[in-house]
Amino acid sequence: MDPNLMVGLEKADDAGVYRLTDDLAIVQTVDFFTPIVDDPYDFGQIAVANALSDVYAMGGRPLTAMNIVCFPSQTMDISILRDILRGGIDKLREAGAVLVGGHSVEDAELKYGLSVTGTVHPKRVLTKSGARAGDSLILTKRIGSGIINTAIKGGLASKEAAAAVARSMATLNKAAAAVMLEVGANACTDITGFGLLGHACEMVEDGPVGLRLHSAAVPLFPETMEMVGMGLVPGGTRRNREFRAAMVVAPGISALVLDVLFDPQTSGGLFMAVDGQKAGLMLAGLKKAGVVDAAIVGEVIDHPAQRVLVD
Ligand code: CO
Ligand code: CO
Ligand code: CO
Predict the structure, then answer these.
(1) How far is ligand 2, taken at its centre, from the CA of residue 31, in Å?
(2) How far is the CA of 256 from the centre of ligand 2 (A)?
C-alpha cells in the first residue's frame, strides 16, 4: 500500500485519487464504449462528457486527456473517426481540458473513450461515502436515457425525446460540479451504468446511513414512462435490479417505476448529498448556472442504515 493513494481499488469510487503534495492530488479515470448515437460528432462529445464526469464527481478539475480508439478501418470510412475525434476535442475545449495523446487499435467494433487526469485539493476530495442523516439528495440530470436509447433503436422514440437525451448526454457536469464545490456537498457520485438506484446503493453500502428516494420527484426524459410501459428496457436493467435487490426497499412501487430507477444511464448527472440547510441554496445555484433539470429527490436517513427506501 502506498500512503499517498487516497482513493484506490479497495473501496472503488468514481475515480482514483493520488496525493502528490499536501495541497495537490491527481484524479484519474478511464472510460470507453461503443457508439450510443448515430452521429459520430455527437458520439465524440458524449464520450468526453462521460469520461470527464468521474473527475467532476470526485470534486476534481479535469486537466489532460488521452484518446482511446478501437476502429474497424477495413470496413468503416476514416471520416467517421475524424468526426468522432473532432466532437471529442470540441468538448474537451469546452471543459478547459487538453488532449495530450492517445492510442488506437484495429478492432471489429468501433469504440471510443478517454483516460482523464484532473487535480483536486486532498482535503476537498468528494467520495461516495460521507452522506449524513438530514442531508438532501440532489440529482442534476434527468433519468431514462437507457430506455429512450432502446426506443430509438426500435424507431419508437419521438425526435424531441431523442434530442433531449442526446443533449443531456453531451452536457458536461462541469457547471453542476462548480456549484457543488462552491456551496459544498458531503458526498457525490455520478449516475451511469448501475442506474439511479444502483448508484444510490453505492452511497450507503458499508456506511452508517440510508437513503429515502421520492420516486415522483425524480426528473425523467419525455416518454420514459410510455416507453418502459412498452417493454423497452435495456439489457442491464435486470442485472442492476437483481444485484441490489437486498438493499432496496420499495413496497408499493410498480415494477415499471423500478425499471426506470434502475435504468442504466450514459453520461448521467451528479447525485449529491447536501446538508439539508444548504439544499435550497444548492438547487437555486444549479438552476442559475443552467443546470435546469436539477431536483431534490430524497434525503439521507439514519435508520435503516445501508438501505434505500423508495416511496
Ligand atoms: Co462514476
Ligand atoms: Co467511469
Ligand atoms: Co501506443
Answers:
(1) 5
(2) 26
CA of 18 to the centre of ligand 3 (A): 24
List the shell of residues around ion ligand 2, using CB closer than 5 Å: 31, 54
Give the C-alpha separation, 266 to 268, whole Å: 5
Written as one letter, the residue type at 137 is L
Residue 54 alpha carbon to ligand 2 centre in Å: 6
For residue 67, the ligand closest to its alpha carbon is: 3
SS3 163: helix
C-alpha cell at 288: 442559475
pLDDT tens string, the chain, 311 residues long: the values are 899 999 998 877 999 999 999 999 999 999 999 999 999 999 999 999 999 999 999 999 999 999 999 999 999 999 999 999 999 999 999 999 999 999 999 999 999 999 999 999 999 999 999 999 999 999 999 999 999 999 999 999 999 999 999 999 999 999 999 999 999 999 999 999 999 999 999 999 989 999 999 999 999 999 999 999 999 999 999 999 999 999 999 999 999 999 999 999 999 999 999 999 999 999 999 999 999 999 999 999 999 999 999 99
Which ligand approaches the C-alpha of residue 102 most closely? 3
Distant-in-sequence, close-in-space partners of 11: CB < 8 Å, separation ≥ 6: 129, 206
Cα 231 to Cα 79, 131, 193, 240, distances in angstroms: 36, 35, 19, 16
Residues 196 and 143 sit within 8 Å (Cβ to Cβ):
yes
Q: Which ligand is nearest to the CA of 203?
A: 1
By 3-state DSSP, what share of the chain in percent is helix, strand and coil, each rounded to 5?
Answer: 40, 25, 35
For residue 66, how far is its CA from the centre of ligand 3 (angstroms)? 11
CA distances from 83 to 32, 153, 166 (A): 16, 22, 16
Packing angle, helices 195-204 and 236-243, rounded to 10? 30
Residue 95 alpha carbon to ligand 3 centre in Å: 25
